[in-house]
Amino acid sequence: MAASNFPRHVAIIMDGNGRWAKKRAMPRAFGHKQGGEAVRRTVEAAKTLDLECLTLYAFSSENWKREEGEISDLMNLMRRFIEKELDAFVANGLRLKIIGDYKAFAPDIVDKLEDALERTKDGTRTLAVALNYGAQQEIARAARLAAEEGEVTPAAIDRHLYTAELPPLDLLIRTSGEVRLSNFLLWQSAYAEMIFMDVLWPDFGEEHLRAACETFAKRERRFGGR
Ligand code: IPE
Ligand code: IPE
Ligand code: MG
């Protein structure tokens, strides 16, 4: 059971697969494969730590700039990951949510994702996966939708973000030692706590997530007040 001051909603920028592989003189694809194992471990850890929502940055709208071979390795990994893990997700009461323009992916991936959304829709804890996601695009889209409805206020934008029905973001973690947001959850991070960890994503696991939640629990959040 989680401590009461643990975060409800944790998001992770899963970075460092390429460097992890390079350190081992292995192809980047191997790093991504081991990154998939870290995803599996982290999803389990989120259950152990009783997090209500875990959001993972898996593919950014800027990742299309990578070489074709790497993109296709990532797509194949995604196909295999869904095939392998979906039953366990359903059994564990996980509700999948996708944030981002996933319909730009290959039709068979879109079908697999939509099947996974349907099969997990009654889950009670949320795993949100950011796919072809860019926060600036998300905010521009939400502002456009809000304008179509009436006044463009922060609350109206909030209602049109992909994350509208998720709990507020409490904690944002980035692995790999880079200290930047890379177009992830810019709006939602307004008052999120941030932790940048010096671990490469394929090495991430329960102990890292727990340590981050414990650090979060000790922080004083003010939201602009005193
Ligand atoms: C994160 O690892 C995975 C994705 C962005 C899809 P990287 O591939 O960015 O690994 P580094 O940053 O090159 O080490
Ligand atoms: C952010 O990592 C995207 C994901 C983790 C999916 P990147 O590796 O793409 O970010 P930059 O290029 O270092 O900013
Ligand atoms: Mg990277």
Annotate the secondary structure layout:
Blueprint: E1 9-13, H1 17-23, H2 28-48, E2 53-60, H3 68-91, E3 94-99, H4 107-119, E4 125-133, H5 135-149, H6 154-160, E5 171-174, E6 193-196, H7 206-218
Parallel strand pairs: 1-2, 1-5, 2-4, 3-4, 5-6
Please tell me about this protein's structure.
The protein has a single domain (9-218), classed as Undecaprenyl pyrophosphate synthetase. It is 44% helix and 16% strand. The chain is built from 7 helices and 6 strands. 35% of the residues are buried. The protein is globular and about 50 Å long. By secondary structure, it is α/β, with parallel strands linked by helices. The chain has a 6-stranded parallel beta sheet, with helices on both faces. Helix 3 (68-91) runs parallel beside helix 4 (107-119) and helix 5 packs across helix 6. Helix 4 links the parallel strand 3 and strand 4. Bound molecules: 3-methylbut-3-enyl trihydrogen diphosphate (IPE) (2 copies) and magnesium ion.
Kindly report the average pLDDT value.
97
> How much helical structure, as a percent, in the residues?
40-55%
CATH architecture: 3-Layer(aba) Sandwich
The number of strands is 6
In one word, what is the shape?
Answer: globular
The H/E string reads EHHEHEHEHHEEH
Looking at CATH, the homologous superfamily is: Decaprenyl diphosphate synthase-like
Computed over alpha carbons, the radius of gyration is 17 Å
Low-confidence stretches: none
